[in-house]
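Need a sequence for this fold. Nothing fancy.
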């Protein structure tokens, strides 16, 4: 739940503004480069703008609009880490607790040991546990047999993971693994005796007024106004069971709702100070990104001129069947960009090929909004 004394961001009326110079041109370039549609939210100080370009639905010709919903994929992880950090702040768990303490027997065998993996290591991807969602065979029900409603229970995905040896000893490296966040979701349920989705609803969505954000468990459709999602061939893959992704990436939202959540999160309005520090403490491994607990720090290049300085930002992103999105907030909290586009080709990604059209428009949108 919200830290005491904090009002929901939705309660404040903020001035609308013209978009940052260059943003509209950037998203139009992104469409010209092969994305059917792009939607964006931008904020500078208290002034917000929303823009869209292209199509939400190529079959009907419906235009893209900033209020339309989309699958946020791994942006879900920052919601999950926030709930676990709130639970730590309430004294109900410690990030140093082991997986075995809360999920006895779940991570065992083939060199895997839940007794050696902490909750913190799940959230910052230093557990070493394998990710079966990197395997083409895992997605055969969807991509080969077109069983878009196929359900993978989270525990089945985890069971597939522990059939493999760990990638490294816990704490001995960094590797992005969706399995980490499936286990994190089960920890939420073990601690609270409630579903992970209901805890996210109670603690984040309801207090912040995120009325267009939802957490489907098995429903393969997107309810309400939404973008359609496509692969690189133009096939509509909007209908896709979110079950396999669960607390690693099943949520649906809008650019406005994601922006409101991340504004509150990075402003320290959702966590106590000790847990806020944990959220923003990044791993230090060669070749690893500066990954915290469900969020990532990066320095955004702002130009090629010798005197141009990068801007420090916190980032979450998501790429999954039909949709790619990014949410960026400057470290000082003064600027934000949330952008979503409706192509992500999972089949190409599994082959190690680019899953989205090549476009400089996405980076130009970031520079236009967050630099200068």
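Here you go.
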């Amino acid at each position: 739940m919200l830290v005491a004394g904090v009002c929901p961001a939705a309660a404040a009326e903020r001035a609308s503004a013209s978009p940052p110079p260059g943003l509209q041109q950037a998203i139009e370039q992104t469409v010209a480069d092969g994305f059917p549609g792009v939607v964006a939210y931008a904020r500078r100080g208290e002034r917000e703008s929303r823009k869209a370009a292209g199509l939400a639905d190529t079959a009907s010709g419906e235009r893209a609009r900033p209020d339309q919903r989309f699958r946020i994929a791994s942006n879900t992880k920052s919601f999950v880490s926030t709930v676990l950090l709130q639970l730590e702040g309430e004294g109900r768990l410690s990030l140093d607790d082991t997986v075995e303490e809360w999920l006895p027997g779940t991570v065992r065998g083939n060199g895997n040991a839940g007794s050696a993996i902490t909750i913190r290591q799940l959230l910052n991807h230093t557990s070493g546990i394998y990710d079966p969602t990197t395997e083409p065979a895992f997605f055969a029900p969807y991509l080969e047999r077109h069983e878009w409603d196929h359900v993978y229970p989270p525990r089945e995905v985890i069971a597939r993971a522990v059939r493999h040896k760990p990638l490294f000893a816990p704490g001995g490296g960094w590797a992005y693994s969706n399995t980490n966040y499936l286990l994190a979701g089960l920890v939420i349920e073990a601690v609270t005796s409630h579903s992970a989705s209901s805890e996210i609803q109670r603690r984040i969505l309801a207090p912040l007024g995120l009325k267009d954000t939802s957490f489907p468990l098995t429903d393969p459709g997107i309810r309400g106004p939404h973008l359609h999602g496509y692969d690189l061939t133009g096939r509509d893959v909007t209908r896709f069971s979110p079950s396999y992704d669960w607390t690693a990436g099943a949520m649906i939202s809008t650019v406005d709702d994601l922006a409101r959540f991340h504004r509150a999160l990075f402003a320290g309005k959702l966590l106590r100070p000790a847990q806020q520090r944990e959220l923003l403490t990044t791993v230090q491994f060669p070749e690893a990104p500066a990954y915290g607990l469900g969020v990532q720090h990066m320095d955004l290049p702002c130009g090629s001129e010798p005197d141009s300085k990068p801007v420090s930002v916190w980032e979450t992103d998501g790429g999954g069947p039909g949709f790619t999105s990014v949410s960026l907030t400057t470290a000082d909290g003064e600027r934000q960009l949330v952008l979503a586009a409706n192509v992500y080709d999972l089949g190409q990604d599994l082959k190690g090929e680019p899953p989205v059209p090549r476009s400089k428009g996405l980076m130009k949108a970031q520079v236009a909004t967050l630099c200068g």
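For context: The longest strand covers residues 47-57.
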